[in-house]
Amino acid sequence: MNKSAAGHPVYLDRARGARLTDIDGHEYVDFFCLGDTAAMAGHSPAPVVAAVTRRLGDLGGASTMVPTEDAALVGAELSRRFGLPAWSFALTATDANRWAIRLLRAVTGVPASWSTATATTARSTSR
Question: What is the pTM of this model?
């Protein structure tokens, strides 16, 4: 993340819509990272800011890993749009893995799971 095609990194100060401002006050049209989720609605769209503020400030429970009423509403809308009957949401890869383990336990009837810690190293060689 600390490399740039221009030879110097851009350190973010703020981002709104399709624009970034770096810590030196330079404003950019975001070609750096809009390829991710910000490409759908820009950085910090007002409805998302309001929903996150409500959840964190008023309702709490952002990291409980249980669904909210909003999840049911969004799932129903996704089902209507795409025709798939069931949806699950995860905030992180860890949440997604936990959900997958719970699903597998429910399907297989196995009451517990185990895991091992392993490390793999990817190596490349050029010839």
Answer: 0.55
Whether residue 57 contacts residue 35, with contact meaning beta carbons closer than 8 Å, is answered with no
Q: What pLDDT score was predicted for residue 123?
A: 47
Q: How far is 118 from 96, CA to CA, in rounded Å?
A: 19
Mean pLDDT, range 34-42, rounded to an integer: 68
For residue 10, what is the DSSP state? P
Strand order in the sheet with 27-29: 12-16, 19-22, 27-29
The length of the chain is 127
Cα–Cα separations (whole angstroms), residue 73 to 43, 80, 84, 101, 123: 23, 11, 14, 24, 45
Closest CA to 26 of 46, 48, 4: 4
Give the CB-side neighbour count of residue 90, counting CA atoms within 13 A.
10
* Residue 21 backbone dihedrals phi, psi, to 5 degrees: -125, 130
